[in-house]
Design brief:
This protein is an all-alpha fold and 234 residues long. The chain is built from 8 helices and no strands.
Length: 234
């Protein structure tokens, strides 16, 4: 088994601990009654915290709390503009990107543990087999997340909702995976020069960083999709 510098192990454990704490905090806050007006966001915010940690927690309080049932109801009672529609466009793009990223995060976690117990190789390497499984599951979860957003927003029948979800998020999901794979390739083949053990905190810290890379590559794509009206603001 490969060994890593102690400082990197400490940083990895610290990052993971912060992420789990932020995730638990958001889950508890939602459970205490601050449920999102769009139910799928009750999953998106905690999943985002699994890689973004305190950054996700800050975004949740600044943006997510404005899209709760209570906030929407209070605005309607007073005849005010819905608070979730008051955020600037760049925040709408960020929320759209994290929505896509949540599906990728869930898919990647499931895929990585699946290939740990059921090894899959591609081109003679486990990492490429894992990436193939990652992509399939991340894409399926991502489209499902988009489906449960776009269908109620537009009140679409199931088949049409699925078509629109594929149209709205396919490019975004692919762009996210490009960034994620890009970073993991750098970490695996350049920084460490070997495949990382999934049972180590360093691997999952690298995955957290990979998710930030995925966010960076999907953000401009989501900006374009929203500007063109292909994807709707959350």
């Amino acid at each position: 088994m490969a060994t890593y510098p102690q400082w990197l192990i400490v940083i990895s454990w610290g990052s993971l601990l912060l992420a789990f704490t932020a995730c638990a905090w958001i889950v508890l806050d939602i459970a205490r009654g601050h449920r999102q007006h769009m139910w799928i966001m009750n999953l998106v915010w905690p999943l985002t915290a699994l890689y973004a940690g305190p950054v996700a927690l800050l975004a949740y309080y600044r943006v997510g709390r404005k899209a709760t049932h209570q906030a929407m109801h209070a605005a309607r009672e007073h005849g005010e503009e819905l608070p979730s529609r008051q955020k600037p466009f760049w925040q709408s793009v960020a929320v759209g990107s994290t929505h896509c990223g949540a599906g990728c995060t869930l898919g990647d976690i499931c895929a990585e543990w699946f290939v740990y117990f059921v090894p899959v190789t591609l081109f003679g390497m486990h990492i490429f087999g894992a990436w193939a499984v990652d992509f399939v599951l991340a894409f399926l979860f991502g489209i499902a997340f988009q489906y449960f957003s776009i269908k109620p927003m537009r009140d679409l029948p199931p088949v049409e909702g699925l078509k629109q979800a594929l149209k709205a998020d396919s490019l975004s999901l692919v762009s996210w995976q490009v960034g994620m794979y890009g970073w993991m390739a750098v970490a695996t083949f350049v920084i460490f020069d070997h495949e990382m053990d999934k049972t180590t905190p360093v691997f999952w810290f690298m995955m957290q960083l990979a998710m930030f890379a995925g966010f960076a590559t999907s953000y401009p794509v989501n900006w374009w999709l929203l500007r063109k009206g292909i994807k709707e603001e959350m």
